[in-house]
Amino acid sequence: MTKVALETVDAVRRRLTVEVPAGAVSAEIDHAYDHLRRKARVPGFRQGRAPRSVLERLFGDQVRADVYSRLVSESYAEALREQRLDPVSQPDIVTERAEPGEPLRYSATVEVRPSIVASGYSRLAVERPMHAITDDDVERFLERLRLQHAVLVPIADRRVARRGDIATVDYEARIGDRLVGRGEQRMVEVGGEPTDGPGAHLDGVELGVPVQVEVDYPADHANRDLAGQRVSLRVTASALADRELPPLDDALAKRVAECESVVELRQRVREQLIAAAHREADDHVRGALIARLVSSHDFEVPQAMVERRTDTLIEEVLDGMGARRPPASRESDVRSPLRGELQAQAREQVKAGLVLEAIAAQEHLAVDDDELGARIDQLAAAAGKARERVRALYQDSGARAGLRNRLLQERALELVIERAAITDVDPSARSGAASGVAGVTGNG
User: Fold this and answer.
1) Are residues 354 and 318 in the same domain?
2) What is the DSSP letter of 128?
3) What is the domain extent for residue 43?
4) Which residue, of 218, 244, 270, is where some domain finishes?
5) What's the pLDDT tens digit per position in 243-279?
6) Contact 97, 21 (CB under 8 A)
7) Could you tell me if 117 and 354 are in contact, meaning their C-beta atoms sit under 8 angstroms apart?
8) Residues contacting 53, CB < 8 A, separation 6+
């Protein structure tokens, strides 16, 4: 009978010491040679008649490797069931003894979820910054709407670009000798900060006259290819146009939003802005409560979980780069620094998930199969043409278990929100009051 001993290495690591009896090892080796004898073709012997001594000489190393690998795999799975361990990492296996005629002995060290007792998650005090939507907010939105539906009118009586013009340009961007950007007949707005793009360098420039500039991009620039780099930019404008904004009238309201009048359009815009403000405020509450939960619980986080979450964040960043995603040959140059930047964020996210799991367990929360199926339906519907691929993904038991766990975390967070002491505040009013106090103090 296989012997299993469990040792607690630290809060998130367990070591299994496993010993498979010599008899079981010998029986597996005998079985392997019996199977090999029937299948192997050995010169000088009819198939199935080669002596074991010959098979051992020709195939012994491979047979032993296969047998010991299979025995480790099977006994490890059995040991996990016996000890009721649910590891979150692949095992680090160290073979201590593996000789014919002897017991197979090895150790397997794995990471597990830490044991957490969640506390202090009821009546957490948090502010909900609710921006009050004003008439000015509505008018600014409507002005952006007019800009989006503006008509470009060519400028025929002027050849010098001015701020606010729409210029048709060709450009090239290089870092040293490496081409990092190119565009032909692109339309850009003239003006802006130096790092905003080609249009930022055209104010006062004549059509057809190339502009050559050097632009230093800050280290925290959103485009990681350009961040911290000096870029040589060559831009030539070939045409200018002006925006002709449509009037804010009932015709525009009907065309862009199927509203009967500007009055109805204003009301719809106000409702949408209020809904967006509510979503932003709710997101802030969620983030603040998660941050409180993470900071108030001190425990070790399994590194394997952090690495997996980091991998996911890296993929999200790369996918978000779209056409700017580097080719596969250069991805490793981007992944390495990204890993360093994102690992702390990944650790906080894993820690938050573990605290929420603990709350769910303590509150006896559950997600039944109907709820799980409903969420899969939502994900499939949102995937559009890829919906069948999504459904196929969640046929896997591991994927379904992961989704069920995420739903449990969501439910636990909803419970924390329901019990929290939430105070609505107007951040603009607060900043105005702070500004007024500062002004009085300064005058004094």
Assistant:
1) yes
2) E
3) 3-109
4) 244
5) 999 999 999 999 999 999 999 999 999 999 999 999 9
6) no
7) no
8) none
